[in-house]
Specification:
elongated, three-stranded antiparallel sheet
């Protein structure tokens, strides 16, 4: 595989892909990680299979502070809904959860042929996790 734009992703040569899975009370249930390294030409050199850690400190110990981190969130506390019709971005959010304060949530949308999917989660939980990564001086 060749990804010519990948060199713009990070100054490091290793990119760590994380899935942070929330459990009860939006606590971290587990962290699944895998990583790949690439050459200057943008070609993958190696892909390391997924492993599991239970906290961010373990992740940093395993992959290092010089890696770039790409994070996906899943599990309890992440709400995903399909919206068949919408008029605007704000309409998508209000259909997913009426009277939601948009400033309190991060959301991501993905459209398909018959509507749009929206995933939402609390900014507070995500910001706390990002703050922990930044405390280790990592790139997220």
């Amino acid at each position: 595989m060749n990804f010519p734009g990948i060199n713009k992703l990070s100054k490091s040569k290793t990119v760590v892909s994380l899935e942070i899975v929330f459990g009860e009370g939006n606590s971290i249930k587990e962290i699944r990680s895998g990583f790949f390294s690439y050459s200057l030409s943008g070609k993958f050199k190696e892909v390391i299979p997924l492993s599991k850690q239970v906290n961010i400190e373990e992740v940093i110990e395993k992959h290092g502070v010089d890696s770039a981190y790409v994070i996906t969130f899943s599990g309890k506390g992440v709400i995903t809904k399909k919206i068949p019709e919408y008029k605007s971005d704000l309409d998508i959010v209000s259909q997913a959860i009426p009277n939601l304060s948009i400033d309190d949530y991060y959301f991501y949308t993905l459209s398909d042929k018959i509507g749009i999917w929206i995933s939402l989660t609390s900014r507070r939980e995500i910001d706390d996790i990002l703050k922990q990564f930044k405390g280790f001086k990592t790139r997220v």
